[in-house]
Structure formats: C-alpha cells, structure tokens
# Entry
Amino acid sequence: MAKVAPIHYVNNKEFTQAIIEHNQSVKEAIAKDKTPPRVTEYIGECIYKIATRLSTRPNFINYTYRDEMICDGIENTLQYINNFNPEKSANAFAYVTQICYYAFLRRIQKEKKQSKIKQKQIENAGVDFATYATIDGVEDPAFVNSAVEWMKENMLSEDTAYDTRKAKKEKKGKLDKFVDEDSNS
# Structure
C-alpha cells in the first residue's frame, strides 16, 4: 500500500516567498515616503491558520480564553511580520509559530494575574463561599464544596507560592549575592 503524502495546511515555501515579497514592497513604500501596504489575503489566512492550529496543542487547548490567545498571536505576528529576515532563516512558518507561541504564554500569564486579583477581591470583600456559589437562589452543596476546594487548592496555593517567590527575589540583592559568593570561597 502506497504511503499518502501528508497535506500541510500552510505551504512553507509559498508562505515564506509571500512574506519576502511583502517585506520588499513595505521597504520600497517607506523609501518613497508612502504608506506601507497591508498584508495580502494569503498571508493573513496563513497566520490565522497557524495561530488556530497552534492553539489546539495539548498545552493550550483547554483554556477558556483560547480565542483571545489566537487574537494576541495574530496581532503580534502582524506587528512583527516586517522584521522577518530571510538571510537568517528561510522558514517563515517557524517565525510566525514562535511569535504566536510566546503571545499565548503572555496571555496565559495575564489571565492568571487577573484570576488572582479577582480571588483577592472576593476574599477582601468578605463574600462567604456558600453565598458566592449559589445560583439563582438555589444552593447546591456539591457545587459549594467543589468550588471551595478548587479555590483553596488552586488560587490560594498559587498566590502564596507567587508571594514567596517574589519575596525571595526581592530579598536577595546584588550585594547579598556577592556576600554569599564571598563566604562560600
């Protein structure tokens, strides 16, 4: 039985060539003091496909804010697409994938920070977990218990771990590191 060649959702050679041509037209427009052209429909479609496909990886698939991650990836890619240098690399697919990957990581960090802020606001407001977990006036004890346990395990433990890491970083300055290295010698 003959092996079927895999169908790629983005052709790297065509995509790289399209980006090179776009970057040349942008440089020419800037040299003539004209407004740079927009990316072509093909480039935009490829960027969207790469960001969407990357978001289906196991480390990104289960986030509820996956759409925001995709949008951040596309936005960052469009922002930095003109920095692609074909002399350094002839792989525009990898370039775009890396931009999207780090945009996803930044979005996850932003969302975690917002979640911690939300948790602290709930704690500071003195909201009782049982009241917080009621839905339409009907209290489900199973939901209350699972919500409380989840908050205790995830939010509070992450928050204290974050605070201790931050305290350690602030505690050791350059002088402290120098003293520690000197005393070890």
About this structure: Residues 127-185 form one domain. The two ends are 68 Å apart (CA to CA). The chain has two domains: 10-108, 127-185.
